[in-house]
Design goal:
alpha+beta, 2 domains
Length: 471
């Protein structure tokens, strides 16, 4: 009995299978003898046939096991099988270990151990202005008085920043943040550099909505032209581009009509930048005390549709409402806008924006700085203004891009005293050539035409050669 129990509980090897089969056969014969005495020869014949069938199946199973073992041994001995592949696997593991060590040496993490990505651009500019440049590196208006042509080289438009990836918050939202700085606060001379915050945002993203706080372009005017010549302020500043980076709190909601169509709605509260240089006065500047910062309400709704094959269209109306406090008076700022992107194919892209309204100076109309006219205490008239810009991009190859741009800002001339700017027009073109995936050379030429009330028009030409290393 002990031997029988061991056989019944042994591991299912080929020997155990055969032993169990003979044991079953012996047991079957004993049962067959008893059955023969009880039931007769016919029933015994049926039992014997079943036993023979079981033995035949057992032999077939044994032969299949032998064939599989022979096939496995032949596969291992063939060229290109497991043995030759071992050095290749070891080589791949060595490469992965080397890359892991490189990442360990170059990785950046915050004090809270969340990922940080360093980004930015080392930008070298050499420039030349004609005699109406007013001594600026990139004049946004042509100066009234004629001076000397000026030029030089600078690195102050270089940009450095960080992208932060934070933890998840309630309802599955993911936190991210961004900070961009440049050296605009310096003179550009050696040993005189000062960092300046350009944009800084912290944002929580959900599947179809997001919430942002920080400093960024106006909600209702997010687009801008492409330029490596004018980076310290947004291109076409003072010529239709309302660019001023301002503190804001913004909420965004996305609505998807289909896989190709989408609506994006944004609304938020902003802080305007009200400074005395943005005040136009006639003869009583002492009454023009202004409250430096005021809250405003902005919104924008973008309708977009993707036609496939690189074709796309985006249209977005927007608005801005705020009130300036100056000379003991409240001066409304009411502006509406429309911006767009039209991409008829992979080679061309048309972008731009248009606005109209009153008191737009605090949103960055550059060197114009005309939002209202002060004639006395509590005697302030908001200045009506309209403007816009457009840019056509042509991408003949993956390395080359051409941009043709123009912008214009037009103030209501009868509201302005002599010497103020009635129209500021700018236009130009640039060429980007990608020397390497992250190294770009740029050539740009542009002209500003500024018309002064009762003083005529002034012109300034600007030429720029730039090299940008993007990291």
């Amino acid at each position: 009995m002990e031997v029988l129990q061991r056989l019944l509980h042994c591991r299912p090897t080929r020997i155990c299978v055969i032993s169990r089969a003979w044991l079953v056969l012996a047991a079957g014969l004993l049962c067959a003898g008893n059955l023969l005495a009880q039931t007769g020869s016919s029933e015994l014949r049926q039992i014997l046939e079943r036993l023979e069938s079981m033995e035949r199946s057992n032999r077939e199973l044994t032969e299949e096991v032998r064939a599989l073992r022979s096939e496995l041994a032949a596969t291992k001995s063939q060229p290109g099988s497991e043995a030759p592949q071992k050095p290749e696997v070891e080589e791949k593991l060595a490469v992965l270990e080397e890359r892991t060590q490189e990442l360990a040496q170059t990785k950046v993490e915050s004090g809270q151990r969340f990922p940080i990505r360093i980004k930015g651009m080392l930008l070298f500019n050499t420039f030349l202005n004609s005699k109406q440049g007013g001594g600026e590196r990139y004049p946004t208006v042509a100066a009234v008085n004629r001076g000397n042509a000026n030029g030089g080289a600078t690195l102050v438009q270089s940009v450095v920043g960080f992208d932060y990836q934070g933890p998840e918050v309630f309802a599955g939202g993911k936190v991210r943040a961004s900070l961009l700085m440049d050296f605009y606060g310096s003179t550009g001379k050696p040993l005189d550099e000062a960092l300046r915050i350009r944009t800084a945002t912290m944002q929580v993203d959900w599947k179809t909505r997001s919430f942002l706080v920080g400093m960024d372009k106006p909600i209702f005017a997010p687009r801008e032209p492409n330029s490596f010549a004018q980076v310290e302020v947004s291109p076409l500043s003072g010529a239709g581009n309302l660019w001023m980076w301002i503190p804001q709190v913004r909420f965004q909601q996305d609505f998807r009509w289909s896989d190709m169509s989408q609506v994006r709605a944004q609304i938020g509260i902003v802080q305007t930048r009200e400074v005395p240089s943005y005040v136009t006065t006639s003869s009583v500047p002492e009454v023009a005390a202004i409250e430096a910062a005021r809250p405003g309400l902005e919104g924008r709704v973008e309708f977009s549709h993707d036609f496939g094959a690189g074709r796309r269209i985006e249209l977005a109306p927007g608005f801005h409402f705020s009130t300036s406090h100056v000379a003991q008076a409240a001066v409304p700022s009411r502006l509406v806008s429309m911006d767009w992107l039209v991409r008829p194919g992979r080679k061309f892209e048309l972008t731009g924006a248009f606005y109209t309204g009153e008191n737009a100076a605090h949103l960055g109309n550059g060197g114009i700085g005309q939002g209202f006219v002060v004639t006395g205490p509590q005697q302030v008239t908001p200045l009506h203004s309209q403007g816009g810009w457009a840019q056509l991009a042509w991408l003949p190859t993956e390395r080359m891009t051409f941009h043709f741009f123009s912008g214009r800002q037009d103030e209501r001339n009868p509201e302005l005293p002599p010497g103020q700017i009635g129209i500021n027009l700018a236009y130009g073109a640039n060429f980007f050539y990608r020397l390497a995936p992250n190294v770009i050379m740029s050539l740009e030429t542009s002209q500003v035409r500024t018309s002064y009330i009762q003083m005529g028009r002034r012109l300034n030409n600007h030429y720029d050669l730039a090299f940008a290393y993007i990291f």
